[in-house]
Amino acid sequence: MKTLLDRFFPRYSKVILLILVGLSFFFGYWLRGNSQEARFSGLAHQEAPNKAAVKLAPGTLYACPMMCISPREVAGNCPVCGMELVPLPGHDHEAGTARLTLSEKAVHLAGIRTAPVERQFVSTDIRAFGQIVVDGFGFSPEFAAKPMAKIYIYESDFVWLRHGQSLTFETDTYPGRNFEGKIAFIGVYVDPATRTYTVGAEPQGSVDWLLPGMIIRATIHIPLDENGQALDPEHPPQKPPLVIPASAPLITGKRAVVYLAVPGEEDVFEGREISLGRRAGDYYLVQSGLVEGDLVVVNGNFKIDSALQIMGRPSMMAPQDKAAEPQ
């Protein structure tokens, strides 16, 4: 079947067809380029006001409140969590420092809370088992015919025992009910088969509920002195130990780091390496590095530490000497 080109230009139909195809490609490419240029030109006009809006103050970095990304020199939203980046003034980010300044909004979004370093008596616990007895079972004769809690203490815990220490215990006979008592007798002989010592505790309050042979589970509360040793409840020292909440220190190996609110400077936090003593429940004893009244960060300290790590400043994982080394 002949085309129009074959009729009117029988000798040059194929050449003309190739020329027409080439021209169609050329004009199509030209039109596409003009449309892209117009689109990019429009975007450039739209982005110009944004660039003016995010013009940096000298030395300012912008960080994600959730520390998803490294601090950057352009404001905007975090590409990971979508939160608005907050400014980190540069005067607190000199190399080798462990200080971080946050905006009020960043402090709120990161959930940063502080608590004072204080002195108070705290306790650690020993858990043991035993039974109720009424005929003394080797205790002092003064306890004969009285319901007593006979408790078995492993020899590794014997060093913590003192007369007068308080305890709580429960029994399966009365689920959910706790009884209180005080240590009145401490045996001095260890059972060679079980490696346990026998301790007698005198229940406080009504004892009518307690019957011979009841199996009990006891928790003995051990108040500590400044050195983390068991103190005598009947003759406590005048000065309680210095303690911080257990959520305050960031611990790695033998190092412990806390972040403090810098006095007189709003929303400025400073890292400090400290020496900790024994943990006692919800607290740690402090041996050195803090004084009473210091405000330590108890919530949000991981986020502060992460920001300092990202910026190459001293932190939990990078102490002062390592952070100062060139990368």
Question: What report would you give on this structure?
Answer:
This protein is of the alpha+beta class and 327 residues long. The chain folds into 3 domains: 15-53; 88-120 and 240-323, conserved putative lor/sdh protein from methanococcus maripaludis s2 fold (Beta Barrel), CATH 2.40.420.20; 123-223, Elongation Factor Tu (Ef-tu), domain 3. It contains 5 helices and 17 strands. It has helices at residues 4-8, 13-53, 104-109, 301-310, 320-323, and strands spanning 61-63, 86-88, 99-101, 113-116, 118-119, 123-133, 148-154, 166-171, 179-186, 196-203, 215-223, 242-245, 250-252, 255-261, 268-280, 283-288, 295-299. The strands form 4 sheets. Strands 3, 5, 12, 13, 14, 15 and 16 form a 7-stranded antiparallel beta sheet that branches. A 6-stranded antiparallel β-barrel has the order 6-7-10-9-8-11. Strand 15 and strand 16 form a beta hairpin.
